[in-house]
Design a protein that fits this description.
This protein has 14 helices and twelve strands. It is of the alpha/beta class. It has two domains: 205 residues, 3-Layer(aba) Sandwich (Rossmann fold), CATH 3.40.50.720; 86 residues, UDP-galactose 4-epimerase, domain 1 (Alpha-Beta Complex). The radius of gyration is 20 Å and the shape is globular. Bound molecules: 2'deoxy-thymidine-5'-diphospho-alpha-D-glucose.
Length: 349
Amino acid sequence: MKPLKSIVEPGYKRWLVTGGLGFIGSHFIRLVLGAGRAVSVVNLDAMTYAGNGANLADMSNHPSYRFLRGNICDEADVDRAIGDGVDAIINFAAESHVDRSIIAPSEFLRTDIMGTHVLLEAARRHKVSRFLQVSTDEVYGHIASGHAKETDCLAPRSPYAASKAGADLQALAYANTYGIPVLITRGTNTYGPYQYPEKLIPLFVTNLLEDKPVPVYGDGDQVREWMHVEDHAEGVLHILERGVAGHVYNLSAGNARTNLEITRRLVQLCGRSLEAHVRYVQDRPGHDRRYAIDASKARRLGWRPKVEFAQGLTATVDWFRTHERWWREIKNGAFQKYYREQYEQRLAP
Ligand code: DAU
């Protein structure tokens, strides 16, 4: 096994990042290793459909990085990754797509709830000094007006959101009962390079680049807040380093948009036409109309999202345009079966 810098160089901290081959996790690892911190990273990733070695290929030979294929639900895998000990666990590993949770919820309960439980137990056994649980604004459920605060009741409404809420509550219970130094971040919808093309923005961009229709659920007036993935990764790092143990922090850059506003802009950026490409299709069951969160607590700690939304979106479309091989490999593989199941009937004339 490749030696890690922490073993050779005293003073280095050692962090276990789970799900680091996924979308936000891979950006987080790149940020940590690129910033010249005295930190080495062990990345434990099960390489399920959304975990992709190509997402972090540029870091694979970094002296402070080691990858281990393994599942957070498996205590032996987690112990192997922790080895002689880690200073922090940052849990990005999750089943994260709402539509898949509607088709097959069990995997969400297993990974998101039981997987987090296994990690919390490991944190207890190994006396880890920071445990950061990456969560989501979806745990608050539909927000009719105003912005959800960290102290608001949780009211998740999809199997995915309920699984993440279960994990949050477990993590907080471990903080309260065992004194585990838990931190939770609840982020909004995130976009940027390397996002698996099942989510709204990468699905629509890649469909448009392929000259295919884009399926808008229901009337398209649902509202989401959008944050660039680099801002999300920085937010998690900021909270890890400066957050108060036992606390929850919302992460939002604002940028509230309806799905139709996003769709129109993407159609424009891809040089397609609304008439030819936009299709209103059967809605997602239990679809939350609006998410909106108040991130002033994280901002009081000094976190500031930097990426301006219009620029971030344009750059993201450009990234997909210039990284066609990355997304074509995905779309030509097992994704096709999922796409057929999810959209064939919806898009049928
Ligand atoms: O809010 C944070 C959450 O954002 C994360 O925790 C989740 O992991 C992430 O998947 C995302 O959840 P959403 O359900 O909001 O994301 P998604 O990209 O699936 O959908 C965004 C909106 O676009 C939602 O209102 C549903 C709509 N949509 C989505 C797809 C895939 C469509 O209209 N058509 C589609 O084909």
